[in-house]
Write a structure and sequence with these properties.
Length: 458
């Protein structure tokens, strides 16, 4: 099967840091599952992916050292059949059984002598089929992965060999990113250095069962999706963002979970590493990693859900206006220059400051079709690094929000309970925000203006 051939390209230090971040307890792999209606047509599926995915060179390249520097080099032995595997089920697979399959697959490291991605197709899932799509984080981040997914799929069931030209990686042009160009020019390096130093001397996070030693035994769970309109209505009632609602709901769930296990929830707040995109959406076709991690004190020690939501919003807004996201992105670039052992030491130092990872991914806004099959659900799990063993993610898709949890089972032995509590926390917030005093038109306008300015600054 013919494919475009890309010249070797130097790997960014940031992506190389992700490439070397795998440990026996935490694989740096983005795990996702795509659920589809109807039976799978493997010939059509492989043909579609084989024609479209190589439009992104990273998916046909492997990482090779050249003159002491890591490079993306075309894999001369690339064979699409080695990356797409059909697992035929003997009977219809339930959600619990599917979670078991996902958990088993998530423990498998990706082959490092070939392009670092893989698809496992399960043929009898919920009356249709499923694709487990695994991509190493060194290839791309969540925003880049959504761009790839949009390119692989169509907006209707009339399947053609040629993908839509909209956003095609061969036709896209680079948009100027004011944030990243400022970093490149060195305008803000003093502030970035200050934030790197500040993060390095933060006290380790509050002791809890989430900070216990990890074994590397993982489990992935999810629940039925939430309707986007419900969550959006909460954010509008309180003049906050969707991400603020997510942070507040997770805070409530973690508080309840620890309280049920006899740990004092009103003590010191837990800290989370929250992903923060620093890339222009138009540049997602370039793949790679352009995001920072911000250290957020979650209001887990606050009982009132509306107060939790307001505090979440205030803290997220303050951090977004700071240089902390760029500082952590710069830290990853620095880590990619260090010897591997020193990189792991620095990463462990940083990750000891938090207990959980939170990720919010904006997925496709409308229904998508792959090889003629309608995609019904999209679920994604965030990997954890260093000493972190609890990751919560939400991804939007076609008017729904899908919650997902990826944990080390020595830290969370009953992840289904934590997932249920997260779902319950959204319902608690919904009731509480309905009862909260309504914003005045002036307050609503001020909040909307502040969010618009913040979005423009990003």
């Amino acid at each position: 099967m013919s494919k475009p051939t890309a010249a070797p390209a130097a790997m960014t230090r940031r992506d190389y840091a992700w490439h070397r971040m795998d440990t026996d307890k935490n694989l740096m792999v983005i795990n996702s599952i795509l659920l589809f209606e109807g039976a799978v047509d493997m010939e059509r599926l492989i043909s579609t992916i084989g024609l479209r995915l190589p439009n992104y060179p990273r998916f046909t390249q492997k990482v090779v050292q050249r003159r002491g520097r890591p490079h993306w080099v075309e894999d001369d032995q690339f064979n699409i059949a080695q990356h797409i595997k059909l697992e035929q089920m003997s009977q219809e697979v339930s959600r619990e059984e599917l979670q078991g399959h996902m958990t088993r697959i998530a423990h498998l490291p990706l082959e490092r002598d070939r392009p670092m991605w893989h698809m496992t197709v399960l043929d009898r899932v919920n009356g249709g089929h499923a694709i487990v799509f695994r991509v190493h984080h060194c290839i791309t981040d969540g925003l880049g992965l959504v761009h790839v997914l949009n390119h692989l799929t169509d907006d209707n069931g009339v399947h053609g060999r040629t993908p839509s030209p909209v956003g095609h990686p061969h036709r896209a042009t680079v948009a100027q990113n004011a944030v990243c160009s400022a970093v490149v020019r060195g305008v803000s390096w003093l502030k970035i250095a200050f934030h790197v130093a500040r993060l390095s001397v933060l006290w380790p996070d509050a002791p809890s069962q989430f900070k216990a030693p990890m074994t590397g035994a993982k489990q992935l769970v999810w629940l039925p999706p939430l309707e986007m309109d419900r969550v959006r209505a909460m954010s509008k009632r309180m003049g906050v963002t969707l991400n603020d609602v997510w942070v507040a709901a997770v805070s409530g769930a973690l508080r309840q979970y620890l309280g049920e296990r006899g740990q004092r929830p009103d003590g010191r707040a837990l800290r989370a590493a929250v992903t923060f995109n620093l890339r222009e959406k138009a540049n997602a076709f370039q793949l790679g990693n352009e995001f920072g991690l911000v250290a957020v004190d979650l209001p887990t020690n606050v009982d009132d859900p509306c107060v939790r939501l307001r505090q979440s919003s205030e803290r997220m807004t303050a951090i977004k206006r700071s240089h902390q996201p760029r500082a952590t992105m710069a830290f990853l670039s620095i880590a990619g220059c260090l010897p591997t052992a020193l990189q792991h030491f620095a990463l462990n130092l940083f990750t000891s400051k938090g207990s959980v990872v939170l990720t919010n991914i904006e997925g496709p806004g409308s229904r998508r079709y792959l090889a003629g099959s309608r995609m019904t659900d999209l679920i994604c799990w965030v990997p954890q690094a260093g000493k972190l063993g609890v990751g919560l993610a939400f991804i939007s898709y076609a008017g729904q929000i899908q919650l997902a949890l990826f944990v080390d089972t020595d830290l969370v032995p009953d992840p289904e309970r934590l997932m249920t509590l997260t779902y319950d926390a959204f319902e608690e917030l919904e009731l509480a925000t309905r009862a909260a005093p309504a914003e005045t038109p002036e307050e609503a306008a001020d909040a909307e203006l502040a969010n618009a300015r913040l979005a423009a600054s990003r």
